[in-house]
Amino acid sequence: MQRLPPLIIFSQLINSNFFSMQKKIWLFVFFTALLVNLSSIVVPSAIFFFFSKPLLVLSLIGWLFFSLKQYGGAVYLFPLAALFFSLLGDILLLFEKANPLFFIVGLISFLIAHVGYIIIFNRIRTKNNISIKWWIIFIILCYYSILLSSLFPNLGQMKIPVVVYGAVISTMFFVALHLLYNKSNANMQIVMGAVLFVVSDSILAFNKFYNNLSSASFLIMLTYAFAQYFIIKGIISNTTNGKFVTGRL
């Protein structure tokens, strides 16, 4: 067995330690940003909220990049795209009070992010040899029907955007729930993230179009942040376990 030159071994060790440190740094940034963001809601501070909200997803992008860089750029293409459009949506929603158009474009950004997650979750489903479970549609249709029937009378000109967005996030939820049939830690993390995403968006929708909730902002950000965190953590774990591969759609 041929031994590697000491210089190459040292270089590999340095790279390994560098990436490991970077992952820890970005996770620290994420949880710090989350603490600052939630604190800025409890003790209102527009400036701290404004800067901490985009930093949540931005730090997850850094975590994802340094966690999967060794697998090549194609591996984290869809997760990175999903996070990018989530970040864009976060930024746009910060300005929704200035112009309602920002809310619509932000909604479109999150819709694209969910399409990315649908593709990822479906690849993991097929890699785990999980067939389509049609009974899950019943659960999704119940959720979707209750949501729309509650909000529809108050949607006004937002009927079509909300109906389309609701259909997309319901599809994301539908695909994610299939991963319950392979209860690995990575899959359970994705399912948890998907559930929290649905909870976060449902609270946001009810708060905006049905009835203002006193603690809505806090709950929305708490569930949203951990939704993204668990989804990315699950994707990273599935990639390192060989359960998420790229290829043709």
Beginning-to-end CA distance, first to last residue: 40 Å
Number of helices: 8
> How many strands?
0
As for the number of domains, it is 1
Strand content: under 5%
Question: Descriptors for this entry?
Answer:
mainly alpha, globular, 8 helices, 249 residues
How is the topology of this model organized?
Layout lengths: L5 H37 L3 H23 L8 H17 L6 H28 L7 H17 L7 H19 L7 H25 L6 H25 L9
Walk me through the structure.
This protein is mainly α. The protein has one domain (6-240). Helix content is 77%, strand content 0%. It has helices at residues 6-42, 46-68, 77-93, 100-127, 135-151, 159-177, 185-209, 216-240. It is globular and about 50 Å long. The protein starts with 5 loop residues before the first helix and ends in a 9-residue tail after the last helix. The relative contact order is 0.11.
Q: Short description, anyone?
A:
With 249 residues, the protein is mainly α. The protein has eight helices and no strands. The radius of gyration is 20 Å and the shape is globular.
